[in-house]
Amino acid sequence: MIAAAASMSALGLGLGYLLGAAARKFHVETPPIVEEIAKILPGTNCGACGFPGCNGLAEAMAEGNAPVTACTPGGRDVALALAEIVTVEAGADAGPIAEIEPMVAFVFEDHCTGCQKCFKRCPTDAIVGGAKQIHTVVMDACIGCDACIEVCPTEAIVSRVKPKTLKTWYWDKPQPGLVAASAETAA
Amino acid sequence: MRLPSIATLFHPLQSFSIRGGIHPETHKHLTSECEIETMPMPALIRLPLQQHIGAEAEPIVKRDDLVLKGQLIAKARGPLSANIHAPTSGRVIAVGHFVAPHASGLPVPTITIRPDGEDKWGPHLPRLRPENAAPEEIAAQVAAAGIVGMGGATFPSAVKLNLRAKYDLTTLIINGAECEPYLTCDDRLMRERAEEIADGIGIMARALGVKQVFVAIESNKPQAIEAMTRYNRALGYTFKIHVVPTQYPMGSEKHLVKMITGQETPARALTADLGVVVHNIATAHAVHLAVRYGEPLIARTVTVSGHGIRRPANLRVLIGTPVSEIIAHCGGFTEEPDRLLLGGPMMGMPIQNPRVPVVKGTNGILALTAAETPEAKTMPCIRCGRCVQGCPVGLTPFELNARIHAGDLEGAAKVGLMDCLACGCCSYNCPANLPLVQSFQFAKGKLSERQSRKHQQEETKRLAAARKAREEAIAEAKKQMMLKRKAEMAAKKKAEEAAAAAAMPPPATATAIQGEATP
Predict the structure, then answer these.
(1) Residues of A in contact with B442 (CB under 8 A)
(2) Do A86 and A41 share a structural domain?
(3) Which domain holds residue A75?
(4) Are B401 and B436 spatial neighbours (Cβ–Cβ below 8 Å)?
(5) What is the ipTM of this complex?
């Protein structure tokens, strides 16, 4: 009995020491760029980019496998901030950064069965509702990552452009050149 | 040292001036001789819940409720909000959404009332004797009546009347400049209701506890100046009638303060920092009605003008009257108007749908024909500087415009985009017809959108972190539970073993005893 315990402990300690030594010896330094990228990313681990969480994307981006525009919930601001620290080799020249309209999830209440699957999946707790009760989306908290759409068994959730309100509406950019051209052709 | 202008020789008070500004054709002759007439009862009344700056009011009526004139139907939500009252008696036929009286035409929460035609008053607000009332009581009465700034800014007036707690106020300026072309509703109100306005001014001066009161009127309204000079005292205050030059944008709060006191309000500061509060003429009138008669704000004076209107007029209309009914009352259009505006031609809102209602801040309805609207043909900017001369806040619009069109909004903000009043002097002055102020409106909206998205991103980050922490806590709790249960199981087993062990020996001893006993 004592011999067995002693041999197992000795084995454990020895292997543990070996593992520890190996970790020290073959330690791989995480490039600081990964951490910097991860800091800029929203950090919600929503998976909209197709990589395993924000850290996954940060690593892929540092290696040059993902464009700076990969984070859709982050939108233009995140892309611009990333383009500043991720240099050209990481794909900053992946075309002009498009202005992405912010999207939000919308629940069709007729189809919602109150299964709570979306509710559990939402990375920002933007979906509210109880079991067997119609769920709804808090628009200001929704990042449009579409995670809930994938899990909904009744396809009751769709992604929509975030509706404008009087507070968020603003005038379109005037196009003086176009006006001049049309006026001239009319004349 | 400041050199006095020649104008001071004629008007000793006029020793200050404002920067920039323009002198557009006023077109006020269209309606300046039209007496204020009362508009007949409209078929429908639509009251948006947001007719003021701040939080939306909260509806307290349901569909099919019967309401009386002056009844509270939506309650102010929070300190920066305003009550909304039923303008006439009738039935609430919907509490839903309707097109906003706004350039966007977006749907906004609206209460729709079908008037029963009896116009039956419900209980009035309790009357107040301002001579004996405390300033707080006056402000509370003004808040209860749902009065907001009626010059167009729609800032809740009661909040402004309560400023004495925070600022050392010395001066009240009553804004009767009405610098926007076409509009004459304030002019007519001063000419016809000077006594009531004077009383309202006195009440406001008392609530604010100021030392001096000025009434600023542009020099192109001689009859209004005369009327207000006749009624220049109330509640122990004597107002100084200050004739200001006819110049757009004289009616801007900060410019009026500069013109009268010579002090410039710092960027993004309030005039209250200088000890000055500015209220509109129409607001003074509404305050008079609210305090003396307990009447909430349910009607206002509106100028209906422009060459597209067959019979331009000044009307007293119920808040919530559809614009289309008002235009029909004024004889309809002479020709299909090029633009339909709410407010003045310089800063008003173009609307697409004429069924939108008049709200508390609507001072004009203008139907402008193609001849009255600016030419659309634009030419390149040659940096002539006319926009710089015209800008009343001293910006360089051509530079702002160039930066915005190059996509450098932050750079535009750095050179003062956020101080732009959107008065439109630059676009008016531009010989190349460039849409300068329109670009600034766009850029301001874009910047505030970016700001709010940034804010939202930070908030969602916080939410995600909170969720993660919660999930970890749950996992930890589960783990602890498992360990506890394991420990419990082990303890139970041990106890059982111990019990078994304890149970075993007695028979042995018993046999031993037996064995001992047998021999």
Answers:
(1) 170-174
(2) yes
(3) 32-99
(4) yes
(5) 0.73
